[in-house]
UniProtKB/TrEMBL annotation:
<feature type="binding site">
    <location>
        <position position="695"/>
    </location>
    <ligand>
        <name>Fe cation</name>
    </ligand>
</feature>
<dbReference type="GO" id="GO:0005506">
    <property type="term" value="F:iron ion binding"/>
</dbReference>
<keyword id="KW-0560">Oxidoreductase</keyword>
<dbReference type="InterPro" id="IPR018301">
    <property type="entry name" value="ArAA_hydroxylase_Fe/CU_BS"/>
</dbReference>
<dbReference type="GO" id="GO:0043005">
    <property type="term" value="C:neuron projection"/>
</dbReference>
<dbReference type="GO" id="GO:0042427">
    <property type="term" value="P:serotonin biosynthetic process"/>
</dbReference>
<feature type="binding site">
    <location>
        <position position="655"/>
    </location>
    <ligand>
        <name>Fe cation</name>
    </ligand>
</feature>
<keyword id="KW-0597">Phosphoprotein</keyword>
<dbReference type="InterPro" id="IPR001273">
    <property type="entry name" value="ArAA_hydroxylase"/>
</dbReference>
<feature type="domain" description="Biopterin-dependent aromatic amino acid hydroxylase family profile">
    <location>
        <begin position="470"/>
        <end position="817"/>
    </location>
</feature>
<dbReference type="GO" id="GO:0009072">
    <property type="term" value="P:aromatic amino acid metabolic process"/>
</dbReference>
<feature type="binding site">
    <location>
        <position position="714"/>
    </location>
    <ligand>
        <name>L-tryptophan</name>
    </ligand>
</feature>
<feature type="binding site">
    <location>
        <position position="650"/>
    </location>
    <ligand>
        <name>Fe cation</name>
    </ligand>
</feature>
<dbReference type="InterPro" id="IPR005963">
    <property type="entry name" value="Trp_5_mOase"/>
</dbReference>
<keyword id="KW-0479">Metal-binding</keyword>
<keyword id="KW-0724">Serotonin biosynthesis</keyword>
<dbReference type="InterPro" id="IPR045865">
    <property type="entry name" value="ACT-like_dom_sf"/>
</dbReference>
Length: 822
């Protein structure tokens, strides 16, 4: 390649020389040939022009084991500042006595052949470095080949011995098999250690410095040399571990006792006469006087003091009356009621996602007096006979009640009379009959109370079934006060997908299928399929009718004509693959299960059925887990080119091809992650950005506008309109886009263009920083869960995953460098 060709290539790639940029008028050389006695500069370091702003210094370092002086370049980095590269020999080779012997023999032969007067001593000395380097490279390559051959022989021996032992079942054959496995394990361990040495050396050399934040996170808690001192309970300071351990154990044993608390805290602030009163039992009159004197804003009912007097009568006369009354184990504090979804509501209520709370009796719900009563009520049975806290278990029942006024209230009174705490409650229409309602109740009680409660519930309800209660929170989950609920594990998307604002079976009067009873019954079938689906199950296969296949075929045929000239490159790349693996064709409607498998392999996304419209918060939460909610029903056949709502044509033809693209999938997930725990206002802004990008977004490719929004790619009329001269277009900016009005029944007034998915993703990341959220989230792809990042411990877990990925990248780079001879 000539000099002009090299300059042309550098210009096309926008590469510049780091050294010449910082030293435009200085001459320096990186190579000296002893034989030719000539200096030359043949080593260059090129970077992109846009990276010049991060270029700090560039210098030529003296050579140690090479005839070439290395060019040292310092660039600013968000993680760490690159340190000077130190050339290191493979320590495992130097520790091998055989290798050291070979190096010694090679040097002896070299000096014996070249140590003559014809060659200068300087030349001999400079050249012997290459001899050592070449000898080491040859030995390492030979050992690598021997190790690979030994592993291949071990695999063959294991395969042969396994088949032989399967036939003979002899002890000797089994011993040979185990010996072969141990040999293979040793070889794999040695190779693994060598890989770790190569990958760790980069991190330890460049980033593992004392002042680095990343190094502090990755460094474990190492024992320190100094002895920690502790002030003992008696007041003295002790540096002896035995005394510290003994005092700590004593504190743990006595800290939970009420006497210790009174002795260490209360009695110190009281005079002796007042302190003696603490030893006397608390009477009912004392409690009543204390409660009446408190300023709570509202007084307790008189009946409450009568019930409290009955409870305290069992306690006041005992020797440990004060302790029994003050012991937390004897106080029964119920958890707050969780809002339930009204699944049997009318269309008006379902659209607004109203809670079941509005159907409850005011005496049972939102009653301050009742809440205060339950907060300190002491069960009579517990006063007479203490039951361990471990016996209280969480369980659930499904009741079938008559759909009549007051039916639910009578059932809830049973729980109230038995002082049983209800944690969660839901209701829906019964599948057995229209005149009945199924109620799911989750509660906590003892085994004895559970039997009594079930007996009373059987008298009140038609049928009853027992179910194990699902835990709503896990021990390792962080409680977030004042933050809207969001799913922390992928299985919790079942709750989101069932909170449908408007079911697919509920059609408006202007819907083409509003008067078609057959079509409405068909839509109810798809609703039942979606509502019955749970995470982990295979999506049920749907047998589409001839009319539905005909409608799908019409939409498929007309849109396929426009895709080559209107769709983006990513869409055109994946559409043929969907035809090959998922059955995308004119005479067949693809199954969601096949689509889910295909997307999982391509981009990590998956789909799940949904009954109808979801709230923006619930829908975006699914994107955070790379889960897309898809409808399965087909639009009405009377007008196949129009639909007032998303159907499976929109989902499968508009969304799925682009969800198979990894960059687009990452962009979609970024929007979903930004919505978790955000306020309603911020969620609405994110939903608007989603609407004008993933639904109606445009991009530039090869100087022309192309569509990537699913709403455009599934609508023939709007797809033509968006790429015509009549459409108004602006560059995508989340700050501006989130204020634009979303139109449902007409074409959009304005469309937004992105240069690429990467640009849109970076803009959304910057926009997400403006969201008022006191924490960050991280999607763990291994557990398919969301981790809350709000302290150094949670960040350390993420950094551990990044460290593993960094080791893998370093190992790959090391192998490439070895292959290229660098």
């Amino acid at each position: 390649m000539g000099r002009l060709s090299i300059r042309k290539t550098l210009g096309e790639l926008a590469l510049v020389d780091c050294w010449r940029t910082l030293h435009p008028s200085t001459k320096d050389y990186t190579h000296y040939s002893v034989i030719h006695k000539r200096y030359s500069r043949i080593d260059y370091v090129f970077i992109k022009q846009e990276g010049l702003s991060r270029l700090r210094t560039a210098s030529i370092e003296p050579a140690t084991w090479s005839d070439h002086g290395s060019v040292r370049v310092e660039l600013e980095s968000p993680l760490f500042k690159p340190a000077t590269w130190t050339w290191r020999l493979n320590e495992s080779l130097l520790q091998d006595l055989g290798v050291r012997g070979e190096i010694t023999q090679a040097l002896e032969n070299y000096f014996a052949e070249n140590g003559t007067d014809e060659i200068s001593p300087v030349s001999v000395w400079e050249a012997h470095k290459s001899v050592i380097r070449g000898t080491l490279i040859g030995i390492a390559s030979r050992k690598r080949t021997e190790s690979t051959r030994a592993m291949a022989d071990a695999y063959k021996s294991i395969t042969r011995l396994e088949s032989q032992h399967k036939r003979s079942q002899l002890t000797s054959t089994y011993g040979e098999l185990m010996e072969a496995r141990r040999t293979l394990q040793t070889l794999l361990t040695q190779r693994h250690h060598r890989s770790l040495q190569r990958s760790r050396s980069f991190f330890y050399t460049h980033a593992n410095k004392g002042g680095k934040f990343l190094a502090r996170l990755l460094r474990g808690d190492t024992p320190r040399s100094q002895v920690r001192k502790l002030r003992l309970s008696k007041g003295s300071i002790s540096p002896y571990p035995e005394e510290i351990a003994e005092d700590t154990a004593h504190r743990r044993e006595t800290s939970s006792l009420i006497q210790t608390y009174l002795q260490d805290n209360v009695r110190k602030r009281m005079n002796p006469e007042t302190a003696d009163i603490l030893d006397e039992p608390i009477s009912t009159e004392d409690l009543a006087a204390a409660l009446k004197g408190t300023k709570t804003g509202s007084s307790y009912k008189e009946q409450w003091f009568q019930e409290l007097g009955v409870c305290t009568s069992h306690i006041g006369g005992s020797e440990s009356g004060r302790s029994a009354l003050c012991c937390p184990k004897r106080l029964y504090t119920p958890s707050p009621m969780q809002p339930a979804m009204m699944m049997f509501s009318s269309k008006y209520w379902a659209r607004r996602g109203m809670s079941l709370d509005s159907a409850m009796c005011p005496d049972f719900l939102n009653n301050p007096a009742r809440d205060k009563l339950n907060a300190v009520k002491i069960d009579e049975n517990k006063c007479s006979k203490t039951e361990p806290a471990a016996e209280i278990e969480k369980t659930a029942v499904v009741l079938t009640l008559k759909n009549e006024v007051g039916g639910l209230l009578q059932t809830l009174k049973i729980f109230k009379e038995k002082y049983v705490n209800i944690n969660h409650i839901e209701s829906r229409k019964s599948k057995m009959g229209n005149s009945e309602v199924e109620v799911y109740v989750e509660f906590e009680c003892t085994k004895k109370k559970h039997q009594e409660l079930i007996h009373l519930l059987k008298l009140q309800s038609n049928t009853i079934s027992l179910n194990p209660a699902e835990r709503k929170w896990h021990d390792d989950e962080v409680e977030l006060d004042g933050v809207p609920w969001f799913p922390r594990k992928i299985a919790e998307l079942d709750k989101c997908s069932h909170r449908v604002l408007m079911y697919g079976s509920e059609l408006d009067a202007d819907h083409p299928g509003f008067k078609d009873n057959v079509y409405r019954q068909r839509r109810k079938y798809f609703v039942d399929v979606a509502m019955g689906y749970k995470y982990g199950q295979a999506i049920p296969k749907v047998e589409y009718t001839a009319e539905e296949i005909k409608t799908w075929g019409t939409v498929f045929r007309e849109l396929a004509k426009l895709y080559p000239t209107h769709a983006c490159k990513e869409y055109l790349k994946n559409f043929p693959l969907l035809s090959k693996y998922c059955g995308y064709r004119e005479d067949n409607v693809p199954q969601l299960q096949d689509v889910a498998i295909f997307l999982k392999e391509r981009s990590g996304f998956t789909v799940r059925p949904v009954a109808g419209y979801l709230s923006p918060r619930d829908f975006l939460a699914g994107l955070a887990y790379r889960v897309f909610h898809c409808t399965q029903y087909i639009r009405h056949g009377s007008d196949p080119l129009y639909t007032p709502e998303p159907d499976t044509c929109h989902e499968l033809l508009g969304h799925v091809p682009l969800l198979a693209d990894p960059k687009f999938a990452q962009f979609s997930q970024e929007i979903g992650l930004a919505s978790l725990g955000a306020t309603d206002e911020d969620v609405q802004k994110l939903a608007t950005c989603y609407f004008f990008t993933i639904e109606f977004g445009l991009c530039k490719q090869d100087g022309q506008l192309r569509a990537y929004g699913a709403g455009l790619l599934s609508s023939i009329g709007e797809l033509k309109h968006a790429l015509s001269d009549k459409a108004a277009v602006k560059p995508f900016d989340p700050e501006t886009t989130c204020m634009q009005e979303c139109l449902i029944t007409t074409f959009q007034d304005l469309y937004f263009v992105s240069e690429s998915f990467e640009e849109a993703k970076e803009k959304m990341r910057e926009f997400a920083k403006s969201i008022n959220r006191p924490f960050s989230v991280y999607f763990n792809p291994y557990t398919e869960s969301i981790e809350i990042l709000q302290n150094t411990r949670s960040i350390e877990n993420v950094v551990q995953d990044l460290r593993s990925d960094l080791n893998t990248v370093c190992d790959a780079l090391a192998k490439m460098n070895k292959y290229l001879g660098i």
